[in-house]
What we know:
Number of domains: 3
Distance between the termini: 9 Å
Strand content: 5-15%
Mean pLDDT: 95
Structural class: alpha/beta
CATH topology of the largest domain: Aspartate Aminotransferase, domain 2
Number of helices: 15
Radius of gyration: 23 Å
Low-confidence stretches: none
CATH architecture of the largest domain: 3-Layer(aba) Sandwich
Shape: globular
Amino acid sequence: xxxxxDEIRNALQAMRARxxxxxxxxxxxxxxxxGLASADAIGREAxxxxxxxxxxxxxxxxxxLQMENDLVGIAGxxxxxxxxxxGVVTSGGTESILLAVLAARDAxxxxxxPRMVLPTTAHAAFHKAAHWLRVEPVLVDVDPAxxxxxxxxxxxxxxxxxxxxxxxAPSYAHGVIDPVEPIAAAAAAAGVRCHVxxxxxxxxxxxxxxxxxxxxxxxFGVEGVTSLSLDLHKYAYTPxxxxxxxxxxxxxxxxxxxxxxxxxxxxxxNTTAQSTKSGGPVAAAWAVVHHIxxxxxxxxxxxxxxxxxxxxxxxxxxxxxxxxxxxxxTLLALVTDDSCDVFTISDExxxxxxxxxxxxxxxxxxxxxxxTFSAATxxxxxxxxxxxxxxxxxxxxxxxxxxxxxxxxxxxxxxPATLDEATFTGLLAAAGxxxxxxxxxxxxxxxxxxxxxxxxxxxxxxxxxxGVVDRLARPTPPR
Length: 479
């Protein structure tokens, strides 16, 4: 069935109506809003103009290579990259991290069973890289008060199989900068690469240096840092699909480059995981970065930072709620006391028009409520604080999400390795998440579901959520 332009526009608008808002500062995770309509407009224009170009062959589309080299250069200057540094533009932070792990692994062919040392707060993308690339993750607990990586424990975890050591600037979960200096020094002493994941902080922290005298060092200016990732589609406020992976030298980058002439077609040459890749996101990023400029990025960063600090101060006056760790950047993590839970507060905030992200417990780290502040959020700081106080009061009045003992027992008895469709369907039914024909039905309020998942081991949580994704991602029935 064909559709005319108006039908397509109406259908897209109807589908989009169910999504979270990407502008206005009310979605405090996933999206980043500069509040600058002109930046959005030039980004969309460039995205459309270069959407059909292909970054596979830089000789066919030299404009893309020129823009990529320019973006890499700007990023490098932000993070004190040394002379001779090299980098690539990727599709996002996860691809940047995958390539950093790949480069570290393949630089050490002498290590048969490679490992990487991670603080428990390192982004889950490192676990994806570990799984895909068969690099064993060695997890090191963070300081329970500051939520920062423990340098002594990290150093002690390095052995002769370690190919990479990781630190965050800042960590996504708690918004704190790890002590990169001693971690990188320990890695360098052992002859091991050190990657700093600055995907979320790389384009905002440098613009806060002048106003944040106590900012922990984390860039290439720290001896021993060999690679660093930073996303442009976060605090550079570009359209989605652009990150940068930087290496201290071209030699360090070489082991994630790929070439194959072992077939009768064109010789495949890749700098990233992708072969064909639209030039749209690169062009959009180039346009937005040059439109906003360094001075305005500093202003936007300070706005987002001030909003973060303002809400952290406001939280001190909200009964039942506290800051999990003093924020170093523009991310804030909140914890509750026994009178309520973060999952109910999340539901209450959504009813008030705010999306805040519940994060589940891991090891000794409690469940938290995550808020990402962008420049567009700053104007609403007071309203967020008021609504958060009201949402927490409502959550305290309701009490922590109740979990039927029999449902917890049923879920806990599941073996993640042997979960089948019938057992999963039965669990959905017991949890009230199955419709009349057994299809998955998500409730409007997710607190009971999230509280159940929070009570389960991470391995079981993963399997159950993959089951949810599997049920959601099914072909649309023919009309």
